[in-house]
Each structure stands twice: as C-alpha cells, then as structure tokens.
Design brief:
351 residues, two-stranded antiparallel sheet, alpha/beta, Rossmann fold
Amino acid sequence: MTYIAKPRLHHPTLTLNNVGYTRRDYEGRVSTLCAGCGHDSISAAVIQACWELDIEPHRVAKLSGIGCSSKTPDYFLGASHGFNTVHGRMPSALTGANLANRDLLYLGVSGDGDSASIGLGQFAHAMRRGVRMAYIVENNGVYGLTKGQFSATADRGSKSKKGVINSDSPVDLVGLALQLGATYVARSFSGDKAQLVPLIKGAMAHGGAAFIDVISPCVTFNNHGGSTKSYDYVREHNEAVSRIDFISDRNEITAMYEPGEVIEVQQHDGSMLRLRKLLSDYDPTDRNRAMNYMQTHHSRGEIVTGLLYVDPMATDLHTSLNTSELPLNAMSAAQLCPGSGALAKLNASMR
C-alpha cells in the first residue's frame, strides 16, 4: 500500500497547547478511507480532544481490531504507542497492556462488526471488569471492508444496498455497556463535532471503563439499484478494458442542534437518521433512568445522543485487583520474581 507523507514542518504561527504541541502534532498519516467517511470526522475529534486536554502524544496507547474503523488509529496520534490486534480481540490486548503499564492513557478504537459480533464477549468482559480506557465504537451498521453486509447493530427492517431487508434484532452496545457496569457511557454522531469532542475529552479523563458509541455513516454502500451512478449500471453501459471500482466523493454529513432538540439527518442513500440531544438538565448519574430513557426514545425511532451515564466515583481494574502503584514494566526481575520464600508465604496464606 502506498502512503502519502505529510510535511514535517509546521507553520510557525500554529497555536501551541500547554505542553508545547500544535494540533498538527496529534495527527497521523493521510486517511485512505472513502472521501466523506464519518470515521475521519471521529479521527479529527480525537485529535482535537487530545490537543485540548494537553496530553503528550507518547503517553497514549491506542489499540484496535479489524475493519474500516480499526484502520483509523493510523490517522491520528502518530507519535503515540499503537497496536492493531486480530478481529474482535482489542479489549483483551488492551487489558494486558493496561495491567503491565498503568501510567499510559488507553484508547480502544473498534467498529460495530469488530465489537458487536466476533468481539462481543471481549467487549462485555472489558466493561464489567472496569478496565480504565476510552472505548470508541465507530458504528455504521455494515461490514465496510467486505462489501456492506449487515452488522449486528443494523436495525431490524433496514435495507441494504442490494435491497435486502434485515430481519434480525440489533445488538445495542450502549444498553449492554450500561447493564455490564461501564461507568461512563455516551452516544454521539460523527457529524456533531461540538458534542463529540467534549465526550471524548470526558472519556479520556475518566477513571474507569468509558464507552462511546458514535453513529458514523458509511458513504460507499449507497449504490442501490436504479441509480445511474451505481457500479452495475456503469458496467452494463460501458465497454472497459479493465474492471475497476471507483468510489465517488461525498460531502461530509454534519449536524448542529440544541439540547432537547430532535432533528432528522438525511444520509447519502436518502434514508433519515433521527437524533435527539439530551436536555441540559438531564441527570447522567442514574444508571436505571439512563437505560429507561434510552429505550423509551428508541421505541419512538429516536437515537439519543450525549452523556447518558457517568459514575463520578468510578474505580478501575487496578483498584479491584489491588495491583502495585509501580507499573509492572518498570519493575526489576527481583521484584517480579521475589523467590521461593515469597511463593511459600503466598501459598500458606491461602490454606
């Protein structure tokens, strides 16, 4: 794969944050996703959030799985630690890294296919154990790398680009995160940067398991039958010397609306997404109310966005396991393996 390099030099007038970095210092490689993809908007929001939080890039560890969403960590925080795991296994790799070095800030990036299907068990245990991390799911309801099949989060009754109707009930990752004990749960829309950036900042600063479900439109899989811009139509009316797919540019979908307001956002395929932003006086500290509120509005066809739940007294896995304040990766061999005497004492304590 060919990468387009960004210039290393910055304009001297770029604004510095409190730790001496410009916003450009939080960027990564040039994105190879489709033009107008909502995932790129999420990457931009992560960049903005980390710059505003004055986080030194080398203090962040970003981990991902497989899918369009899991490619995005390459497009932000190029100077941070990074690890791309196998499909659905990001949470366990992140948990191990977190236990080894608690001094880093952990950012898990996944997709609806990566977390709601093959990785559903991994997602569940990371949430219930309270692993300290910001877990972002870039949710578009399809498997983008394998030509747009329904993912587990696709709503019942939704139609694919081939006209197939989804008959399965969706997996609601926000509802699961609330039930499993996540202590920071939010939902947003990739086109609403004014809402998304503060939510990411809150997740990065949170002391426990923070989860954000971001509805992120897929711009590619709208070449439905009847469109003169579809691949099939062009192939049927064109005598080409080779068979090449070209995905035309799409404008980024954005949304600006006030707390308590409901808006309908038209997608590239003509379908409508109905968003409701939480009221300013909404109490996010009541877990049961958050679940009821979300389900009530879901029954009306509305997707509630904002900070749904937060536990201001959250603890993490290190607290429950009573681990050492000194990270494991900073310990000497003698500290990690104290000898047979310490082992005998430990065994005796369990009798």
